[in-house]
Amino acid sequence: MALPSFEKVLPKTDIDEMLVIPTDFMQHLPDVEGGHSVELTVNASGTQRTFGYYTRAGANRRPVLRSGWRGYVRDKGLQVGHKILFQCVDGFPQYQICAKKKIKLLGQETWAEF
After folding, report:
1. What is one GO cellular-component annotation here (predicted)?
2. Based on CB atoms within 10 Å of each CB, which residue in 41, 63, 105, 114 is the most buried?
3. pTM reported for the whole predicted model
4. Which domain range does residue 69 map to?
């Protein structure tokens, strides 16, 4: 059985401010236990990164990665239109993230990790 994941083509908001996480993926992330944030350690191409995982209070809990996210964007050189793959890995709850961009390979467009 495949481990939970999501892929997302990055819009300007995800590049400039924070990564908005699909709400249905929240079930695979740690509970914020009465607060609105928790640190999330993620394997990013062999390097451990820490992101601040936040949710709003109330019914509209819109999950996001904030602190640490802009540093990852800068370090990877992410741009609007690039894609990320965020997934749970063996040893759940552990996570990894990888960046992808479109390339042409033998005349065909495809996504490649970078």
Report:
1. nucleus
2. 63
3. 0.88
4. 5-113
